[in-house]
Structures are given as structure tokens and as C-alpha cells.
């Protein structure tokens, strides 16, 4: 058996610790996670804000279409959450804010230059 066949499903090595399945490097030296965080999705150029009701009647404002990397989205989400005093997260290149903040988020994104 070839050495590459042995390493194809390797997830832990006693010499390196946990192994990344994407790049087969030790987790602390992983390059694919850094590339994913720096990648910017292709957007149509339109920033979209919408309000969705979830389970138990609780709703959330979802912001999509921002041409930012994952790290940039996390930073912007943090600013918006602090500004509005709410919780939220970033999922699939979309910012999710707990509550109905469509108007306020639109105004804030305009101030920051994301919406013309």
C-alpha cells in the first residue's frame, strides 16, 4: 500500500496531533481554513435585508449580498450587534441579527458605505 493511501483518511497523528482532512496538515498549520476565511463570495452587487419569523414567533433580520470575506462579515456583524444591542451570527455569508432591524441596519450600512 502507498503512503498516500494510508494518509487519505488520517484524522489524528501522535506526532502532529489532529489533522485537517482538507489539506492533510496539522490543525495549527492548516491552510485551507485561512483560505476560506479570506475568500470573498461573488454577489450580484445588491445588498438585501429581510425579516424572517422563526420558530415560536421569534424573528430575525438577515443581511445578504455583502462582498466581504468571512472575517469581514464577522467584524461587521459584531459592530451591528453592538450598535443595536442584540445577538446574532454569521451563517453561509449572511449576517443574522435577532429581532427586526431592517430599517436601522439599512441606515447603518448606508453610513458605512455598503449601500448607495
What does this protein structure show overall?
It is a single chain. This protein is of the alpha+beta class and 116 residues long. The chain has two domains: 3-38, no CATH class; 48-112, Translation Initiation Factor Eif1 (2-Layer Sandwich), CATH 3.30.780.10. It is 33% helix and 22% strand. It contains four helices and six strands. Strands 3-4-6-5 form a four-stranded antiparallel beta sheet, covered by helices on one side. The longest helix has 15 residues, at 70-84. The N and C termini lie far apart (60 Å). Residues 1-7 have low confidence and may be disordered.
Structural descriptors:
33% helix, alpha+beta, Translation Initiation Factor Eif1, 4 helices, 116 residues, 22% strand, 6 strands, disordered N terminus, two-stranded antiparallel sheet
Give the CA-based shape. elongated
Enumerate the strands of the largest sheet in spatial order, edge to edge or round the barrel.
3-4-6-5
Outline the low-pLDDT stretches: 1-7
**Which radius of gyration do the C-alpha atoms yield?**
19 Å
How far from one another are the termini? 60 Å
What is the correct CATH architecture of the largest domain? 2-Layer Sandwich
> Strand-and-helix sequence, N→C?
HEEHEEHEEH
Task: Report the structural category.
Answer: alpha+beta
Kindly state the number of beta strands.
Answer: 6
Helix run count: 4
Provide the CATH topology of the largest domain.
Translation Initiation Factor Eif1
Q: What is the CATH class designation of the largest domain?
A: Alpha Beta
Characterize the biggest β-sheet.
4 strands, antiparallel
Portion in beta strands: 15-25%
Question: Residue-averaged pLDDT, rounded?
Answer: 80
Domains (count): 2
CATH fourth-tier homologous superfamily of the largest domain: SUI1-like domain
Which percent bin holds the helix content? 25-40%
Amino acid at each position: 500500500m502507498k503512503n498516500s493511501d494510508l494518509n487519505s483518511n488520517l484524522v489524528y497523528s501522535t506526532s502532529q496531533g489532529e489533522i485537517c482532512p482538507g489539506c492533510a496538515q496539522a490543525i495549527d498549520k492548516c491552510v485551507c481554513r485561512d483560505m476560506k476565511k479570506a475568500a470573498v463570495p461573488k454577489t450580484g452587487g445588491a445588498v438585501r435585508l429581510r425579516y424572517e419569523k422563526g420558530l415560536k414567533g421569534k424573528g430575525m433580520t438577515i443581511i445578504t449580498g455583502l462582498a466581504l470575506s468571512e472575517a469581514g462579515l464577522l467584524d461587521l456583524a459584531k459592530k451591528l450587534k453592538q450598535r443595536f444591542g442584540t445577538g446574532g451570527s454569521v451563517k453561509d455569508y449572511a449576517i443574522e441579527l435577532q429581532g427586526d432591524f431592517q430599517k436601522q441596519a439599512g441606515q447603518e450600512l448606508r453610513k458605512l458605505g455598503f449601500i448607495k
